Amino acid sequence: MDELQDIWQRVFPNNINDLTGEIVRGFDSIGFSMHSHVPCSGIGSLEALENYKKEILWLKKHYQDQIKIFLGLEYDIYSDHGPEGYEYTIASVHCLKLNGICYDFDQKLEGTLQFLNSHFLGNGTAFARNYYETVASIPQYGSFDILGHFDLITKNNEKGNFLDVHDPVYLGYAKDAIHALKGKIPLFEVNTGCIGRGYRTTPYPQIELLKEFKACGFGAVITSDCHQKEFLDCNFDHARELLQSVGFDSVYVLTQNGFIPDLLI
Ligand SMILES: [Zn+2]
Question: What's the predicted TM-score (pTM) here?
Fold first, then answer.
């Protein structure tokens, strides 16, 4: 087995066959962004994070002539460690603190509904308000490159299960968070991970919010948040079209000189 294939298989244990071919299909660089350790959600561990760092740095060096590999981190604000030591960072909110207790709301539909009913009496708008106020607090936790899956709470809501995402009250909470983050985080992601994993048919964020990010001067990156190599470039064309439709003429890509704009046309 090819050495890179062997390592890739350990990073993504569910992917077994023909991985090298997938990696090089059209990509000249790739960024990994493992989750930080979040005690209340059970995501990751400090030990796994250290192993991840070593593995990606080894890959980076060993394959430097074939593909550029970047060591990133998806940092949840309720992690028990800092976001330092990575080539790029994505800041995300997967949990909410209510009365001092941290809860992971980012689950399958049943789990999210249970959380909503237990803590917000089923009121999706109240849930959204708390979520976006928490998102607005991200800069208190450090400096980050990218704002992660901004409207994550809509992951299980494409059929309007608990929220009307076109309701001006809902949009107002989301836009308030965008305004609070303006000038504090340079980039936001158009994240297609929810499509690959079957939660939604369109990426985050929804189009009204894309327009707001544009109006507030944020740069855009396209990410697959894929968890599985099959979805490495899932719906990237769709994401590009959406960005162009609201006036973006470039997306930012990570290079050895940092993030630079890359024209969409
Ligand atoms: Zn995430």
Answer: 0.90
